[in-house]
Here is the input.
Amino acid sequence: MSDVAPPAGPATEPVGFSPAPRAVATKAQIAAWAAWDWGSAAFNAVMTTFVFTVYLTGDPFGGADHASAVLAFGLGLSGLAIALFAPVTGQRSDHSGRRKFWLGANSVMVALLTAGCFFVQPSESFLLLGVALIAAGHVFFEFASVNYNAMLLQISTARTIGKISGLGWSMGYVGGIVALLVVYTGFISPAVGWFGVTHDDGLNIRVVALFSALWFLLFAIPVLIALPENPRDPSHPKLGFFESYRELWRTIRRLGRTDPRTLFFLLSSAIFRDGLAAVFTFGAVIAVGTFGFSRGDVLIFAIAANVVAAAGAVSAGFLDDRFGPKTVIVGSLLGLLVSGTALLFLRGSASFWVFGLLLSLFVGPAQSSSRTFLARLATPGQAGELFGLYATTGRAVSFLAPMLFALFVSVTGAQRWGIVGILVVLLAGLLALLPVRSPLRGSGAGTMVEG
Here is the structure.
């Protein structure tokens, strides 16, 4: 293994970037990489946030309170699977030189599981099937994301990593806008949609699952063509499955000794990223079950929310390169806490429009800068493993927000109070992040500061 805490490069490079020269990616390669984020909106925005999970938590599946609690528990279990396997998948793709291959294979699995949601009919007897498909989709999506995030080091430099990461997130949001507009105008809004699809037996939503699978596959192709495979490191022998976990444990111990900053960031980000995921997962569910949105209202809100989120992610990319990722993350978490608290006590759809859009504004920057924080600390030869740990630490506690959401709903009997569970996780993540030092660009570039 390469050293986990490499020495700082020249004064113009933040900590973590190898001083060795790297080929500059072309604009076409950057666009191809960002296209995967665009396509991923079919799973993130359409399936798990604004359309399919809203369908899955409706009255035919046992009502919003019951179905949303089952969904929360299912996502908690998927988080456990990700925690167990994600770091080894990243580690093995680093060592084998097959990062692009595994990105493609896992993307195909996400598409197949998404397409399987077509068979989830509007009946409580299909609730577990729907939750299982979405939960399994989350597992393979995270595996794919480990390799996708690691590719960020192949296409960026210390001066551009924030902007490129922000571009990727913004492409995801804009892709969400386009995908939601297509499904809304083509299948959800009209009584008889494209290809004669009707609302009978939930067919319009089930067809959206097929559309989402095709959309994701289509936009996953460019990165698989445009970017080269990461080279295999001959100094790393092939490891068996169980030996990979022993190697992983040695890496964690090495991080604790030589680069505790990275370890502490992984732990703190695990907590607040679980809260960020919950904002997306349960936002539309709360809009319908608590604030009285119709399914059409949710999609219109989703389009507006993605516009705001895209603007936030792009702006954050420039702020990240200027002020450092920690400043962006802390500011975003504070904004999320204020907006979420307001939604807890306010009533009416107008309140959700205002503060729900504010939530959208702050989520993207926190996500994008969290990715660049770790990427600034990683070397190309260890990026997959660190992003595997990034996924694992996130999913190791990913039961927190869903379980707390489910607990507050179950205890109070009201979906609204599930918001408290999400806020608790965001606050805990913020408090854990505050002591962690950040690599910040500036006149003292490459110097660790308390920024």
